[in-house]
Structure formats: C-alpha cells, structure tokens
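Teaching assistant here, posting this on the class forum so everyone can see the example we discussed in section. The complex has two components, and the goal was to see what a joint structure prediction looks like when all of them are supplied at once.
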Amino acid sequence: MIYEPSPLAIGVFALFVAVVLGLSFYLAARTKSAKGYYAAHGEIPWLVNGIAFAGDYLSAASFLGICGMIAFNGYDGFLYSIGYLAGWIVALLVVAEPLKRLGKFTFADALDSRFHSKGIRVAAAVSTLVVSIFYLIPQMVGAGALIKPLLGLSSRLGVPGQYESAMGVLLVGVLVIVIVVTAGMVSTTWVQFLKGALLVVFCAVLTGMILNRGLTTQPDPKQAPKFVSFRREMAQQYFEANPHLEVLEESGPWKGKPYVRIRDPQTGQISIWCKRSNWAINQFEKLHRLADMDRAQYESKGKDKTIVNGVEKGNGSGKGDFHTVGQVYRLEWEFPGSGVDVIDTGPLDPVAYLTTLQQSQIVLWDKDPPIVEEDGTVTTIYQPQVVKGSDVLLPGGSPTFAGLRRGDLIKRLDFVSLMLALFAGTASLPHILIRYYTVKDQASVRKSTVVGIASIGFFYVLTLYLGLGAMTSGALDPTNSNMAAPLLARTFGELPFAVISAIAFTTVLGTVSGLILAASGAVAHDLLTSFLKWEMTDYEKVRAGKIAAVAVGVIAIALGIVFEKFNVTYLVGWAFNIAASANLPALVMLLFWKGTTKQGITASILVGLFGSLAWVLASGEAFKNIYGLKAEDALVPFTQPALVTLPLSFAVLVAVSLLTRPKK
Amino acid sequence: MNADLAKPQKPANQSEDEHPELSARNARSGLWLFAVYLAAYAVFIRLAAASPDVLGWITPLGPNLAIVYGFGLIVGAVVLALVYMRMCRRNEQKFRGAGGAP
C-alpha cells in the first residue's frame, strides 16, 4: 500500500530519536572503561534492569510480528506470545543466577569459568555472533516496515516505493550504531528502560481504546477511510449495477485457477473474483453463480507499471491503491445462536470481547501464490475468507500451523519444535544473557528477572487484544502483516498512531542496540582478548568493541534489506531455534552435570549451532523464500530444527564428555 | 594484557545469598517450580499439536480453553516467579537461622 506521511508522526518520531540520542551522548561520559562499556559497571538498579529486560525482549517481532500474525491468522500468533513468555521461566529458575555467579561480561565467561579453554571461548563467541545476526534481521525488517507509513518517503521525498523499506533499515542501522558506539551498555540499558516502560503503558492504553470501541460490522469511515467492505453481498450488487460486464476466458496461467476475471467494457478495468466451493459455470448465462463469489484484491506488476484492483497504482486522478480490510462479518451478540445480528456492541469488558468475537464471523485475508504470465507480468491475489470466530480463536488457523487441524504429522512436529525453541531459546539469547551482568549480585538478578517477567507477561496478554482489534478495525493493509499494530492505532487518531509508531521504532532501536552490543562483546572480549590474546589497554578494548559494533551494524543493514518480505515473527523463530540448540545444552550441563568437559561443551555448541543453521537453510521456507525454489524439494522434512538439534546438542555433549573425561 | 578481562572473577561486592549452600538451596527450589511449569506447558503443546479441537471447549468463564489455558500459562509464569522469590527469601531466613550467615 501507499502510505501518506503524517507530520505529527514525524514530529513525535523526531522527538523520541532526539531523546534517545541525547541520552546516549550524555551517558557517554560515564563509559570509558571496558566494564562500563560492556556491563554498565554492574551498577544498574534491579527495577530499571527488570524493565530494561522487557525493553530488550519486546522486540519488533513481539510488537509488530505477533500483532500482525494475530490480525491475519488469529490464535496462532498468540502461540508465539505464550512460548516467548514461557521461556522466561527457564531463564529465571534455571539459568539466571548461576550465570551471574560464574560470568563477568559475556555468556562465554560463564561457560569458560571452570575450564579456561580457547575452544569454548571461540565456539561461544561464534554462537553469539550468529544468533545475534539472525535476531538482528527481523528487527531491521520491522524497522523497514515501520518507516513506510511513518515518514511516507515515497510520496514526500520521491523515494521509489521499493526502496522505502531499505531507507528505514538504513536509518535504524545508522542510529543504532551511533547509540552503541557512543555509550555502550549504560545508554543501551536506559534506552531499553524507557522503551520497555513506554511500550507496555501505551499498549495498555490502546487495549483500553479497543475494548471501549467494542466490535462492529461496519467500521467507521472516519477511523478507516480506505476501508471497503468485501462482504459477499457485494457481488450481486456489483453485477446488477454493471449489466454489460465481460467474463474473460480462462487461458494461459489462469486456466484451472479458482478465479474469475471480469472486465468492465466502459472503463477497461479488470476485477478478480474468487470461486467458492459451490460455484458452477452456467453456459446459458454469462453471469455465473454470483452469490458464490468473493471479490479479491490484486496487484499486477508489469514491466512498465503496476496495476492495483484494475487501476494504475499511485496517488492522484485515475490511479488507485489497495483498500484496507479487516471486519466482523456477522455479529450475534445479544442473542447468540438466534441468527439475530447486531451492527455494533458498544464497549466490552476483556472477557466479553473474546466471547463475543468467538460467537461472530470474521473476514480474514489470504495471500495466494503469484500467477506469472507469458509477458512476465506477476499478479498477486489477496482473497477474503469468512471464518467463524470460534475457529479464529483456536490453534491451526494460519498457513504455518494449518496441519495441526488436519492431523498432519510433519506439521505437528514442526509446531512442537517451534514451541520447544521458544521455551528453550529465551534463556540462550546473547542480548538477554549479557543483561545479567549489569546488576550487582544474584539477588538483583532474581528481582530484575521477576520484574521483567511481570511486565513482559502483561504485554503478551495485551497482544491478543491488539491483534484481534486490528483484525476487526477495517484498517489492515492486506499486503503487509507487520503494519497491523500501527495502522490499528491510526484508527484512534493521528496522535496514538504517532506515539505507537515512535515507540515501535524505539523498540527496534533498543533491541538492535542490545544485540549489536552482545555481538561486539563476543568479538572484542571473547575473540580478540581471550582467544587471540591481543594485548590491549582498557581504552583499546572499548575501541575494538566499537569497531566490531560498526561492522555488525553494517551486516545487519545489508541482511535487513535482503530479507524484507519475511514476516518478522517467523525470522525470530529461527533465531530462537539456533540459540536454543547452540547455547542451552552447554549452559545447563555445565551447571548440573559434573562430568561435563571442555571438549564436550565446545562440541555441543558447534553441533547445535551449525546443525540448526544448516537445518534452517535446508528447510522448505528457505527454499521458497530465499532461493526461489519449490518448498517440496527441501532437504529436511520440517522447518523448525530445535526438536532434532536441541537433543542432538545434549547428546553430543554427553558423548564427547564421556570420551574425553580425565583419567583418574 | 588486562588480566581483569581474561579471567572471570567473582564480583567484588558479593552479597550473602551467594553463599554456595544458599545458592544450591535456591537452585533446588527453582528446579521444582520449573518442573511444575514444564508439565503445564507440555500438556498445552500436546493438546495444541494433537487435539486442537479440545482447546475449542467453551469454559464456564466464557472464552474457550485455548484462551483460558494460554492466559493461564502467562499469568502462571508471573505467579511462579513470585513464589520463587518467596521461597528464596525463606531459604535465606532458614540459612541465617542455621548460622550460615557470614
């Protein structure tokens, strides 16, 4: 979609960025030493650190990705919320305090505390780098998605549409590099604190607004001006009003496809309709079973121009764009089961909101595989589906998890593997692990983790309402799930949109800062100082960390541009898989099995890291979205590796430790 | 080279609950609570993966079991975290009472 820039949003965004940068420069004076740069001198108060945990953890994936996934697919997005939060129990009850006791600046410190092994150092550092970079990609993609409606670069500065996301990625990358290079962990922590607190508070306010609005079958045109109802009744009305429509022949790549293309001879515009199950061609009448068709939205990208819904894409006379979508189709509220519909419920309490939605019917939108014509024109079709609310609020509604309801064993294994990765991955994420070193002792670690769990848990409860609110707001962009939350905020006015967008942008800044800092620590502290034994003064160590931060930032910018089209939640799932497989077995076995050897730890990290990485790159999703090949040709049966690579990493650690145990 | 960076050391300002015996007691408490949560999480995953229809059961609260169980896992994590804090405090009191304080 084309987004109009909002001066208010730009103003609020500029204010947020100015505060963040100001804070960084102010705090820069306090971080001259390596301990200050990497661990904020271990002096951060536990309450601040706890909220900063939320700031670190509630990334673009949590805010943009989960809300988008719930808005488009219902409960399946909420499964991520559950898994992400559950992972904190592993962090609090198993990993946090021993890690603080054993380490100093990085995760490698803790792993290597008993053995002083170069192998462990380098394996842990490489693992930190890979996981950080995989986690950085979705943050950058989220930044690119956000910048479009926020700054409207396309319409304001004439930046071509395809470069808008890249501009967003570049802007975030440069800002984050400045933040990290100026003040390190001190500024990163305070940025996280501010962002975490603002995110939770404003999402709570937004949820209050959603509940106060209630549910409606007719979104207010003032709140969603680009909304058009794609209710099934449209078909009959459309054809009655246009009796001379021409049904195009199903030829070429359109043959056998579930679409009917209809041309208006007066305007030359082509509309696309989806055949439904009881659709049938009536040879004697050109008009088909109209009541059994739904009008779709489409985009045809040719060599010279792009057509959207029959007209050239763009602003101005004779041009057009996608309509926003997302509505309740039928609302049986006061008398469920009676068939009596209402239009508007008015304000609802949190439980009534869910039960009412459960008894309703919702219009959800799917993106179909593109159709490529002989002249190279690529048509992507977005089609509406009327779904029962009770199905929306059950697992298995999204394409990702659809196999759960069909009883597909491979899809079930994929799902279990993802949920295992989310559970085990949180306690293995490098930017979370380094936060245990910013407070003074174990009690502070415990208290700050509990504060983190409370604030993060509260936020994840809100994600369900934010996602469902976006689903029924009439403001969804059918082409971009990552924009659901900011566009939902826009239905309540420009100010909520401006504030939520600016917070989301700061969210990306904060998480990316933490990740870059973790990666730079791995390079400068673990690789250069501890592994390569470079002789460096304290000042030189900080400088090496800053150079590493710039390098990692540049890599993140490049990858953020390459992976632009992925849903950010999905990408984060991969990062969790890799983190869980590479880091958790080594950490847990070091803490709980005396037979662990340094060779066992090193082998476990490397097998977990490269095993999960290879699995991800050989999966159907990678085949389809990265290499442009058929998903069926993938080399592994399912996409999420943790179910295989996590136990494998444990097994390798035990086997190698047994083989290399010291002789008595 | 700065030896301070090369070898991990214990923080200078060690607090008393970092005594190894107290840490071990807290770790045991943590593992018990972890086992409880892991069981609840595993049952949820089992239901979602193998019997998603069961999660469609409408609970007396109004929303279906999927919503109630999902919220329960999130709120339950917060409750367990608070219980763990309380257990650690009790461990510390017992430890002091047994003359374990330095």
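For the discussion questions: The first helix of chain B runs from residue 3 to 6. The radius of gyration of chain B is 21 Å. Think about how each of these relates to the inputs above.
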